[in-house]
Specification:
Strand content: under 5%
Order of helices and strands: HHHHHHHHHHHHHHHHHHH
Mean pLDDT: 84
Largest sheet: none
Distance between the termini: 17 Å
Shape: globular
Radius of gyration: 21 Å
Number of helices: 19
Low-confidence stretches: 1-5, 218-225
Length: 427
């Protein structure tokens, strides 16, 4: 009897092939990233309108990120044991709690507690347990041959939703201000909207089926002591976490906010123009994440991660070396056209090389490693960018550390292949 052909790994087939749980997870990702972009635009403006001084605002944001990191680490490393659906619902409830408290009070201490315990994204990027658990759940619902393409779409909808949320918050708050609403109440409406999004997410996650849950551990008494929800996969996750933290540490030297600040200081670029530059840059990033799936299907996940990332980081180093603004923008946009190809491939690779019942924990631990690495370097680079003689140094440091990560990643994992590549190679 002839074996059935493997599922079509193409991008369109991967999107159409999502089952009910997969479509729900995509919808929740879209809703959440819209909410993060929606809140991030006005969060600092809201806290300032509430009467907090810059030092207090900085403290709220810092403790919010620290609290999110700690709670997310616990939730994601226990998600496969407690139940992925339960953890996703808990994360949505924490979004509601944070939104309600932030909208209800301007008491500094209560804002700190709500920010630390709840789920709030000051940057518009992923926070909370969602990303790690959703990656594990999606992997559970799609064939190996479609995993990378599915993650490419998953990242694409996130980029678009974040940008749309930011635009929506700006338009809504401006309309309210133009209508005579006070700044505090105008921005509070956005915060209330964030809480409503959390409620909608909790309802959506409630509708997920048992199919997204981790399978029973194949070996329950293997003598391996579990730490952070990891057993057999502990060694590979530790290696990946160290490497990912190097990559994130490098990227933290010149995040988009500091990059925009550099363009403003070096060339006097106005905020409206900066917005246009990074709008198109993020569109290119979205396209690059989608195209990664086709490249990975031909050349493999590790090769795609490394050999698209290296030229991207060479271009990053070249940005401050350009003699004028148009060339600097052109190099930056070219860099963004390659920069996100490693994201869906990296996510797919982590899910492929760990045990199925440890996927949430693996995604959580590697994600926290990236968050921690990225949190350290901006404190150094913010001073360098504003200095006269060292403004370009963060670009060089970022590109250098990220290229180091690429080389180490290739050395350590070039022979560790995901299941679909092993099948293709043996076939």
């Amino acid at each position: 009897m002839t074996a059935a052909p493997p599922p079509d790994p193409g991008l369109v087939a991967s999107l159409r092939g999502l089952d009910r749980d997969g479509r729900l997870l995509f919808a929740m990702r879209t809703l959440r990233m819209f909410g993060y972009g929606f809140l991030a635009v006005v969060l600092v403006l809201y806290l300032a309108a509430a009467g907090l001084d810059p030092l207090a605002i900085g403290l709220v944001l810092t403790l919010t990120l620290i609290g999110d990191t700690i709670i997310s680490l616990w939730l994601t490393t226990n998600a496969d044991r407690l139940g992925r659906r339960r953890v996703l619902i808990a994360g949505a409830v924490l979004m509601v709690v944070a939104g309600v408290v932030f909208a209800s009070t301007t008491w500094f201490l209560l804002l700190i507690v709500a920010g630390a315990i709840g789920v709030v994204s000051p940057t518009g990027n992923e926070v909370g347990p969602f990303l790690a658990v959703e990656q594990a759940a999606l992997t559970q619902t799609v064939p190996d041959t479609r995993r990378t393409a599915t993650f490419a779409w998953y990242n694409l909808v996130g980029y678009v939703a974040t940008a749309t949320g930011a635009l929506g918050a700006g338009l809504l708050s401006q309309a309210l201000l133009n209508g005579g609403t006070t700044p505090l109440d105008a921005y509070r409406a956005i915060v209330v909207g964030y809480a409503v999004i959390g409620i909608a997410m909790a309802v959506g996650f409630w509708r997920l089926d048992q199919a997204i849950e981790a399978p029973p551990a194949t070996v329950s008494t293997d003598g391996i002591r579990r730490r952070f929800g990891l057993g057999r996969s502990k060694r590979v996750v530790l290696k990946l976490s160290v490497l990912f933290s190097i990559d994130a540490f490098g990227g933290g030297f010149i995040p988009q906010s500091l990059m925009a600040y550099w363009f403003h200081l070096q060339y006097g670029v106005e905020p409206a123009v900066l917005g246009g530059i990074f709008f198109f840059a993020n569109l290119l990033a979205a396209v690059s994440s989608l195209s990664a799936a086709r490249i990975a299907a031909r050349f493999g996940l590790i090769n795609t991660m490394v050999f698209t990332h290296i030229p991207s980081n060479v271009l990053l180093i070249l940005v401050p070396l350009m003699p004028n603004l148009p060339l600097a923008i052109a190099v930056l946009l070219l860099r963004f056209s390659l920069s996100q190809m490693d994201v869906p491939t990296r996510q797919s690779y982590v899910m492929a090389v760990v045990d199925p019942d440890e996927r949430s924990a693996a995604a959580g631990v590697t994600g926290i490693a990236r968050t921690t690495g990225a949190a350290i370097s901006p404190s150094f680079s913010s001073v360098l960018v504003a200095s006269q003689g060292y403004a370009a140094l963060p670009f060089y440091l970022a590109g250098g550390f990220k290229i180091l990560y690429d080389l180490l990643m290739y050395r350590e994992f070039r022979n560790v292949r995901p299941p679909e590549e092993q099948t293709r190679r043996s076939g």
